[in-house]
Amino acid sequence: MTEMPAGEHPLPQITDRQTWQAKIDELRVKEKAHTRAGDTLAAERRRLPMVKVDPQTPLIGADGPVVLIDIFDGRSQLIAYFQMWHTGRPAAEQCEGCTFSTTHINELSYLHSRDVSYATFCQGPYEESSRYRDFMGWTVPWYSVPQDAVDRLVANRYFGILVSYLRDDDKVYETYWTTGRGNELMAPSYGLLDLTVYGRQEFWEDSPEGWPQRWGSQGGQFRLDGRPIAQWSRIRSRPTRQPRPPGSAWRRGRARGPARSRARRRRPGQR
Predict the structure, then answer these.
(1) Contact, 243 vs 130, CB < 8 A?
(2) What is the pLDDT of residues 38-74, one digit of tens each?
(3) How many whole angstroms separate alpha carbon 151 and alpha carbon 117?
């Protein structure tokens, strides 16, 4: 990504405050209509039928095997994000889109106040994928989906879906799922960028001629210098705590930071 030199950014038309406010007032009418259209869709979503899911579907958590109904943690509803995982690959090669989405999820108390639990259901082995969770500093409940549970939960779809469940006593139902741009609601960064003059700066956007558009829409918009963007702040703040999936380049030392590599070569008693 190349930055435009100072003073060469294209600029919107400059006007007086009264004219500017009048234009915003015109747009506000459309914004409110858009919000109400979303309310209408949400109302329709609440009236969808639902489908049964085996409440005893196995998952793997920090304390070992657990079943789906226990993930509700006593609440009546559950939202689960199905995180993609590339087993045995280093952190730099993990899914940039899933990293983008999950990085935004932190405070769950508002969901809990509505009787809703939240969890990440990861595609990979728990021991390996949970190291990535720790590296990223994520605090959401994290579970691995074993192979014998994939068909029951993913059901001919794919990881990268966001799913809503309802528990009725000892029964569990799936009530809704989405993916792709439907997952954007997990990431307020996009909503905030949409409020800025240059937007998301992605090629598909309808922007004025000359507006900066630097990002594609096939994953590159979530990567910077070869890594999912959110990894860089973690690497810079704690460079020796990168995860090392078993059998990968991480384990063989090619992806370790210099400080960690030197530490590995020191013999006992050396300083």
Answers:
(1) no
(2) 999 999 999 999 999 999 999 999 999 999 999 999 9
(3) 22
The helix/strand/coil state of 78 is strand
- To which H or E segment does residue 64 belong? strand 64-67
| Chain segment 200-215, per-residue pLDDT in tens | 999 999 999 999 999 9
In this prediction the pTM is 0.84
Asked if 236 and 135 count as a contact pair (C-beta separation under 8 A), the reply is no
From the list 183, 180, 181, 177, the residue with the least C-alpha distance to 164 is 177
What's 99's domain CATH number?
A: 3.40.30.10
Q: Is the dihedral of CA 102, 55, 159, 131 positive or negative?
A: positive
Dist. CA 88–CA 113, nearest whole Å? 38
Position with higher pLDDT, 238 vs 161: 161
Q: Are 52 and 173 in contact (CB under 8 A)?
A: yes
Assigned domain for 248 exists: no
Helix 96-103 to helix 126-136 angle (10° resolution) is 60
CA 1 – CA 6 distance, rounded (Å): 15
Q: Say how many domains are in the chain.
A: 1
Indicate whether 131 belongs to any domain. Answer: yes
147 falls within a domain: yes
- The answer as to whether 268 is a domain residue is no
The Cβ of residue 228 has, within 10 Å, a number of other Cβ atoms equal to 22
Mean pLDDT of all residues belonging to the chain:
88
Q: Could you give the 3-state DSSP secondary structure of residue 145? A: coil
In the block, which residue shows the tokens 């100072």? 6
Look up the domain containing 181 and give its range: 51-185
